[in-house]
Amino acid sequence: MKLRRKRSPLRISALSLVSALVAAGALTGAATSASAQTTAVRMDYTCTTSLGPSAQMTVWVVGGLPDEGAGLNTVARHEPAYIDVDLDLRELRPVLTMAGGVRLDTDSTATLDAHITGPDGTRTTQASFTVAPTWLTTTQGTAVRAAGSFPTQYLTTPGYYDLHVDDLTLTLRPERADGTPLGTVTASCSHDPAQNDLLGTVWSQSAIFERPPRPSGLRVVSTTPTSVTLAWEASSWWNPTQGYEVYLDGGHTGLVTEKQVTLTGLAPDRQHRAKVVTTDVQGIRSTMSQGLIFTIPPA
Hints:
Layout: E1 3-4, E2 10-13, H1 18-22, E3 23-27, E4 36-49, E5 54-66, E6 74-76, E7 84-94, E8 102-104, E9 109-118, E10 121-131, E11 134-136, E12 144-149, E13 159-172, E14 185-191, E15 198-205, E16 207-210, E17 216-224, E18 227-233, E19 241-248, E20 251-256, E21 260-263, E22 271-280, E23 292-295
Parallel strand pairs: 2-16, 6-15
Antiparallel strand pairs: 1-2, 3-7, 4-5, 4-14, 5-7, 7-12, 8-11, 9-10, 9-13, 10-12, 13-14, 13-15, 17-18, 18-21, 19-20, 19-22, 22-23
Signal peptide: 1-36
Domain Fibronectin type-III: 214-299
Keywords: Carbohydrate metabolism, Glycosidase, Hydrolase, Polysaccharide degradation, Signal
């Protein structure tokens, strides 16, 4: 990596409330995103539910902070910052037992309030989540996960930006095994303001990184119970493009030469996050595309 000193920027080349129907419990863990530093913070929430009783939840909020500058948790100030975030719910304690269990899927959602403090002041933001398909047939050892992201952040003033977690809301739509809806359960959750709420810190660097533009417009073209076809857009730069590296749930699936890929051998009824990187003939890689969360249909 070569540095050229300039007065202007440095240029560098190269759910519980499933629970309200079934439980109230603890959140933990989450998948790591490619090209991201995983950080986590434990939050203890008190939730008011639409069913009447309040519930206590211990929530692990897991973030994938960008590594797109020089070092961990860095971005170039002129480039957008994409921050993934996941929730994971475990150790459910029964509130109501249903014969045959209940199912949650992407109809169930969550939102997480947050604020970012940095050299340009404090801004508020909100992450949106979709719940991964989950069957709750037992209240022991069941994990309910939700995947999401914050809106694109522009950290244009160089310096350090702290990401703090705030309140959480849940909208859960459980159904019976035969698909019969069981109504909507909502929960508004707040945490002790004295509790540590720092998810992580991103360093915005005054630098220009010479690399291919990142792919954009990542989208699902089609799915089957065992495969997905993804497509995206990409811009050229002065070096010819060698191909595109595709990542699924943080794992590298290979290099393709077209702006489309079909990934096979997937398990039905699963949630995934995909990203794409452009690579030129000299091996210079773009930053990661914005993540795309999608769900494979049931068999």
